[in-house]
């Protein structure tokens, strides 16, 4: 029994050394991010070039596996409850993105002086980027919510470029 424990201890020590000698992970080894679900993501204003670009819908494969179940369940639940005409809750997103793009010309005043990106996921419009004044966030949300099929709108915006953005940024 004693010898057996010794071998297990040596094996554990050997594995620990092997993994320890491998060194820390490099940036090159970081998981690749993709827009796995083809969620709409596009820029709608570009007046502030120093504005940090949001990460948008780009996620790792591990994050995709976690989200896949939630997305399927959300769509099925909505359809079975009679709250959605379509079984895929996320199938509305491309239509919402098209409506946003079509409405852009009428929003020149709202978008002036801003750098903004849109992500549409599950009938929720995320507006991320930089605006000249923080009060513009409420107006952006109201505009997005006014479009057909939009369930909610969230503006995560930065009015002071010296601060960290309130959204995840692109690498």
Describe it.
There is one protein chain. The protein has five helices and four strands, in the order αβαααββαβ. By secondary structure, it is of the alpha+beta class. The chain has a domain at 30-57 and 91-158. A four-stranded mixed sheet has the order 1-2-3-4. β2 and β3 (124-130) form a beta hairpin. The longest helix is centred in the first third of the chain and has 20 residues, at 2-21. The model is unreliable at 1-25 (pLDDT under 50).
Q: How do the SSEs run, as a string of H and E? A: HEHHHEEHE
> What portion of residues is helical?
25-40%
Report how far the terminal alpha carbons are from each other.
Answer: 52 Å
Which strand order does the major sheet show? 1-2-3-4
Main pleated-sheet profile: 4 strands, mixed
Mean pLDDT: 86
Q: What fraction strand?
A: 15-25%
Helical stretch tally = 5
Rg over CA atoms: 23 Å
Topology diagram in text:
Blueprint lengths: L1 H20 L19 E6 L14 H20 L12 H11 L4 H4 L3 E7 L2 E7 L5 H10 L6 E7 L13
Parallel strand pairs: 3-4
Antiparallel strand pairs: 1-2, 2-3
Which short descriptors sum up this protein?
alpha+beta; globular; 171 residues; BON domain-containing protein; disordered N terminus; 38% helix; 4-stranded mixed beta sheet
Briefly summarize what is shown.
This is BON domain-containing protein. Residues 1-27 form the signal peptide. The chain is of the alpha+beta class and 171 residues long.
């Amino acid at each position: 029994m004693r010898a057996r424990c010794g071998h297990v201890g040596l094996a554990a020590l050997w594995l620990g050394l092997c993994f320890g000698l491998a060194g820390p992970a490099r940036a090159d080894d970081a998981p690749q991010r993709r827009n796995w679900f083809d969620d709409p993501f596009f820029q709608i204003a570009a007046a502030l070039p120093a504005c940090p670009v949001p990460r948008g819908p780009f996620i790792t494969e591990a994050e995709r596996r976690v989200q896949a179940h939630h997305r399927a369940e959300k769509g099925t639940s909505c359809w079975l409850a009679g709250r959605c005409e379509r079984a895929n809750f996320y199938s509305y997103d491309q239509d919402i993105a098209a409506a946003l793009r079509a409405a852009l010309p009428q929003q020149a005043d709202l978008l002036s002086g801003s750098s903004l990106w849109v992500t549409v996921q599950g009938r929720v419009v995320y507006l991320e980027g930089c605006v000249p004044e923080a009060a513009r966030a409420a107006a952006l949300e109201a505009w997005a919510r006014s479009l057909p099929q939009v369930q909610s709108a969230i503006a995560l915006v930065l009015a002071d470029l010296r601060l960290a953005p309130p959204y995840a940024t692109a690498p």
